[in-house]
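Reopening this one. Same input as before:
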Amino acid sequence: MVESTEYKAQLIALRADFTQRVDAISKDLHHVDEAIEKDFAEQATQLENDEVLNSLNDDAKTTIMLIDKALLRIINAQFGLCIKCGTEISKQRLDAVPYAEFCIECAD
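Same output, byte for byte:
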C-alpha cells in the first residue's frame, strides 16, 4: 500500500494553490479593480475573457473537490486505492496526480 503521509502535505499545498487561484479568478470576474468598459467592442472582449475565467474557475473548483476527496481517503485509510476496482493506484500515477481516484486501467 502507498504511504499516504508523503502525499498529505503535497495535497494540502495543492489545495492552497488552487484556492488562491479561485480567489484571484473570482476577483477578476467581479471586476473588483476595474470599471466596466463603455465601448461595446471592449465589453464583448471582456465578456469573452469572463467565459475563459469561468471555465478556469470551474476546473480549479473541481480540482479542489478531488483534493478534498483524496484527503478524506487518507483519513479513512483508503488513499491509493482505486475507487472503482479497489486495486492499488501506482506510485507513478499518484506522483503525477496525487488526487487520482482511479488506477490507470479504470481511468481509461
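So the earlier flakiness isn't reproducible anymore. For the record, The radius of gyration is 18 Å.
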